[in-house]
Specification:
By secondary structure, this protein is mainly α. The protein has helices at residues 4-26, 29-58.
């Protein structure tokens, strides 16, 4: 089963990838860095969701 943090994390990673790509295409370094940061935040959020899911399954 998938939880809210896992779904939100993956969505945030995708949004970050789009933002990063837009920054690269337009030459806007600030937008590119914002996208990279958002991707990292998404990875962390998904990892939190993964841990929550493992804990839920073990109980």
């Amino acid at each position: 089963m998938v939880n809210k943090d896992q779904v939100s994390g993956v969505a945030r990673q995708a949004k970050g990838a789009v933002t990063e790509a837009a920054g690269k295409i337009t030459g806007n370094r600030k937008t590119e860095l914002k996208g990279k940061a958002e991707k990292v935040e998404g990875k962390v959020q998904k990892a939190v969701g993964d841990v929550k899911e493992k804990v839920r399954k073990s109980h």
